[in-house]
Amino acid sequence: MAIKEIVEHPSPILLQKCKEVVKFDEKLAQLLDDMYETMKEVDGVGLAAPQVGESVQVAIVEVDEEQEVIELINPVVTAIGGSEIEIEGCLSFPGVYGEVERPFYVKVEAQERDGSLYELEAEGYEARAILHEIDHLNGVLFDSKIIRIVDLDELEALEEEEIEMSREGEEA
Fold first, then answer.
1. Between these two residues, 46 and 163, which has the higher pLDDT value?
2. How far is CA 18 from CA 27, 57, 62, 124, in A?
3. Measured in Å, how far apart are the chain's first and last C-alpha atoms?
4. Which one of the listed residues 20, 88, 133, 154 is annotated catalytic?
5. CA distances from 158 to 95, 118, 151 (A)
6. How many CA atoms lie within 13 A of 120 on its CB side?
7. Which residue, among 77, 75, 81, 80, has the nearest Cα to 60 in the 3D structure?
8. CA 129 from centre of chain
9. How far apart are the C-alpha atoms of 108 and 58, rounded to whole Å?
10. 155 falls in which pLDDT band (50, 70, 90)?
């Protein structure tokens, strides 16, 4: 496995609609493994193939290390529901954070690394991460969806507030 370099904005590959995967072979498996290693190395929760220089419909998401990594090949969103505004960042936009509105719920059809079809439903943070990565595969970047830029000081203050609230909840 290899750690890949993260492609940063304004690279043109990030704005392209990715090609459908038609060969489910060792090369695809290697790409998925490399993407996972790269995502872990840079402390991400998701990564799309164009972010490592490959214009193919492949993305991975892992919001909880206790769950299996989600591999999304040729994903298609079949249903969405609800709406929420949360702060997002993107590995291709280092240091940029903003409030983005996304559906709370998503249902997706995708393929496994062996080509078999599967269906996935997700809510909340996991749905947000999946939709963020699928956007990448369609050449849609999160900066086009930002409602309000959040500076690093504000982000850190919000994270501190969340930590404090969780501590108080544990003590109660």
1. 46
2. 17, 5, 21, 26
3. 45
4. 133
5. 16, 37, 11
6. 23
7. 75
8. 4
9. 13
10. confident
Q: Respond yes or no: is residue 133 known to be catalytic.
A: yes
Banded pLDDT at 169 (limits 50, 70, 90): confident
Helices (H), 7-64: 26-41
Predicted confidence band at 111 (pLDDT cuts at 50, 70, 90)?
A: very high
Q: What is the pLDDT of residues 54-77, one digit of tens each?
A: 999 999 999 998 889 999 999 999
Across the chain, mean pLDDT equals: 95
pTM over 0.90? The answer is yes
Q: Which CATH class is domain 12-171?
A: alpha beta
- DSSP secondary structure, 56-122, as one string: BSEEEE-S-TTSPPEEEEEEEEEEEE--EEEEEE-TTSTT-EEEEEE-SEEEEEEE-TTS-EEEEEE
**Residues 6+ away with beta carbon under 8 Å from 49:** 18, 31, 35, 55, 56, 57, 58, 59, 137
Measured between alpha carbons, how far is 111 from 19 in angstroms, rounded to an integer?
14
Look up residue 129 and give its two tokens: 């991460």
Rounded to whole angstroms, the Cα distance separating 69 from 63 reads 8
Compute and round to an integer the Cα radius of gyration of the chain. 16
Check whether 80 has a pLDDT greater than 70. Answer: yes
Helix, strand, or coil here: 149?
strand
